[in-house]
Amino acid sequence: MDVSFVEHLKKQWMAMIDALEDPLVLIDQHYNIRRQNMAYFNRAVNPNQLGLTEFKGKKCYEEFAGRNSPCPDCNMKNSTRENLPKTWTSSSLFASKDLEIHVFPNVDVDDDDALAVVHYRDISQQKALQESLARADKLAALGKLAGGVAHEINSPLAGIMAFAQMALREMSPDDPHLEDMKEIEAAAQKCKVIVEGLLGFARQDSPESTELYNLVESIKSTLRLARVMVIKERIELHTSLPATPIYVEGSKGRIAQVLLNLITNAIYAMRDGGGELEITVETLGELVEMTVRDTGTGIPKEHLKRIFDPFFTTKPVGEGTGLGLAISYSIITQHRGKISVESSPGVGTTFKIHLPLAQLQPPGGKA
Ligand SMILES: Nc1ncnc2c1ncn2[C@@H]1O[C@H](COP(=O)(O)OP(=O)(O)O)[C@@H](O)[C@H]1O
Ligand SMILES: [Mg+2]
Asked: Residue 116's beta-bridge partner residues?
């Protein structure tokens, strides 16, 4: 065969493999890199610092995982021994990425060592989608259940409250049962708050009155409420709101409720020693982004996945119902928006909300 033709073929194959977005590498049984594609090279640990153009003879765990021994979960050797492809996942190889790793053993190359191809696929987005689908399912089911229970409890509860209040009015101030009756009324009042929370959560799929309104104005009135709480807890409040109106469509009251939930949580997280609360609003293309950032306790990693679950709370009985974020999540989803969180324990927490801008901006009100 013509040499230049072979060169051409080689170039063609390399170009094809380099065009793949997924990292791909050929390694031997001693983890030496024999060949890699461009994506592998680009994702490797500090390729520029090493000043390398090739990894030939380098170890994959050094260059790709930044380790000085093979990755503990590596299946390459098993795969070669059993002569079977293997797949596993790793979330530690790249920060905040979930990778699916495939190894194909004993690729047929004239070589004295058995070679394996390793293929890395980023499944972070797929995983996030699966989780959000599972959550939506769980929330819908729980919403139905919670709504049913709340309705059932609502009328007997109203009875307890009404009769307790009536009895209280008729009791003389020195009645020995007066304090007990007050307890009954207060306890029923507490139940009412919980039942209302449950109903709010269950209402997730019945669209409430929607209107076209200026989000900035509505946030300003919510902030007036928040200011009172902030002063009490000695918290510094910083806000950054746009000067021009931002029009969105939906339920003004429910979006305000979400913001208030986030602010209440933030203030609670800073209840010892104060801190800073920052609220920002800005437009990003077709979206409006609201952030609520605090310098409070932060949320441990193992809680992050659960904070939007109904009834998940770390607060003592009587102080939290664990419904705030579950309700907020359902309200934002219902408004075709997204809510997300980032947190570092000991540093603070940021909640971010994205809502679509209204399709039709009212006359004279350009956002
Ligand atoms: N800003 C925050 N800082 C720290 N932890 C938070 C914050 N917001 C929420 N959390 C955590 O999420 C949990 C659930 O919040 P939420 O659904 O509002 O219920 P509740 O406030 O009744 O506990 C809280 O108990 C707390 O552990
Ligand atoms: Mg709360």
From this structure: 27
For 292, the domain range is: 208-367
Instruction: Indicate whether 260 and 358 sit together in one domain.
Output: yes
Select from 201, 262, 265, 323 the residue to mutate for testing ligand 1; criterion: most ligand atoms less than 8 Å from CB: 265
Q: What is the pLDDT of residue 346?
A: 93
Last residue of a domain, one of 157, 175, 206: 206
Ligand 1 centroid – CA 208 distance (Å): 25
Per-residue pLDDT, 52: 52
* Secondary structure E strands in the chain: 24-27, 33-36, 86-90, 99-107, 115-122, 211-214, 235-240, 247-250, 275-284, 287-294, 338-344, 348-356
- Between 17-26, 188-197, 347-356, the lowest mean confidence (pLDDT) is in 188-197
Q: Are residues 114 and 127 in the same domain?
A: no
224/326 same-domain check: yes
Q: What is the pLDDT of residue 110?
A: 79
pTM: 0.58
Ligand 1 binding pocket includes 258 (Cβ within 6 Å): no
Q: Which of 6-15, 100-109, 136-145, 243-252 is the least confident region?
A: 136-145
The whole-chain average pLDDT of the chain stands at: 86
**What is the CA angle 20-24-29, rounded to 5?**
165
Do 190 and 107 have their domain in common?
no
Q: How many domains does the chain have?
A: 3
Residue where a domain terminates, one of 74, 91, 122: 122
